[in-house]
């Protein structure tokens, strides 16, 4: 039985702003206009002044994928997704604070 083999290649990205608007949009299966909307509501913070010269970091890619998932799974608008992302970030910060002071946040009741 023959199996097709697919070679996947990629680039490691980190704190350096290396993704263009087109690359970020493609990584999220979206259009560049969608990325512009995310920047407009403050979810993404590109480096560069001109849209064509914007560069995005790994954190922007993670955030954009979270927004795409919220929109897909819950039908959220960009504005609603921005609120959800803020709330999720706040929860993560609160859990980190609780963990630093020695409270078990994962073993407690879920409301």
Give an account of the 3D structure.
The mean pLDDT is 86. Helices cover 50% and strands 0% of the residues. It is built from four helices and no strands. The chain starts with 20 loop residues before the first helix and ends in an 11-residue tail after the last helix. Helix 3 packs across helix 4. It has one domain: Orthogonal Bundle (Multidrug-efflux Transporter Regulator, Chain: A, Domain 2). The chain is mainly alpha-helical. The chain is globular.
Number of strands: 0
- Which CATH first-tier class would you pick? Mainly Alpha
Give the overall average pLDDT: 86
Shape label: globular
**Helix proportion range:** 40-55%
Annotate the secondary structure layout.
Blueprint lengths: L20 H7 L4 H9 L17 H17 L3 H23 L11
Outline of the structure:
The chain is 50% helix and 0% strand. It contains four helices and no strands.
